[in-house]
């Protein structure tokens, strides 16, 4: 039994390797009934995903994963059920992509000083040409034989203290929540267990997020352990937040995060989809095993 809602995924519109259409088909074939496309700082893949979803009977939730800087930590805030034509949201995302463009060139310059040439063009070639992520640099460096996998590139080149690291300022937490709400969506703190924060700092984040009107935290995530599910479920309850679930699928090359394998939310959670008007009459979601 797995969770038929998967509310976190990436396509080639950001740092995924499948087109929005292929992503939707893969999810549907794996038994996902409700999928959110949540590319980093863009909604460019939503139209294609919606049309693929209508052909295969999957419910596609228009979403986005917004990059935020909170107390010097990069935090990701997901918007679900957003109107992707909303002007406030689009203006905000455009600023983030401008920062990404500048940062990509800066990363490449720093890598060049460390003896790695052509990284900007290399990363760009792995992207769809409109949004460059550190993941695209990682793929280029793997291709160049500088590391055996993307994780190792991050560890040795792209994180704080390493040659290709560029510090920067993303959106503020309040802005991300505001843009999502302005676009009629609900906001979710993505993969909270992944942030390198103390428990008390993480609780400060949840508290601030709840005070801003944030709705949910991702309790079940492809990047959480089983223990994390229960820890995050408890935090959600403590702050009156709902719970979300998402694989954070990026690529079929990442065998540990596949569609159709997300566990159910722990029983004490209030699922973010509980008041969504979705036809799930035949669904097994959250029925006891
Ligand atoms: P960016 O938003 O461009 O800074 O890139 C962040 C993305 O890089 C995340 O969404 C992940 O997809 C990927 N990422 C971050 N850390 C790692 C890591 N340690 N190993 C592999 N991918 C990572
Ligand atoms: Mn990513
Ligand atoms: Mn993320
Ligand atoms: Mn993600």
UniProtKB/TrEMBL annotation:
Q: Which CDD domains match?
A: PHP_HisPPase_AMP
- GO terms for MF: 5'-3' DNA exonuclease activity; 5'-3' RNA exonuclease activity
Source organism of the structure: Candidatus Thiodiazotropha endolucinida
Quote any Pfam family the record assigns: PHP
Which parts of the sequence belong to the Polymerase/histidinol phosphatase N-terminal domain? 5-70
Q: Which domain of life is it from?
A: Bacteria
- Segments spanning the bilayer are none
Residues forming coiled coils? none
Provide the protein name.
Polymerase/histidinol phosphatase N-terminal domain-containing protein
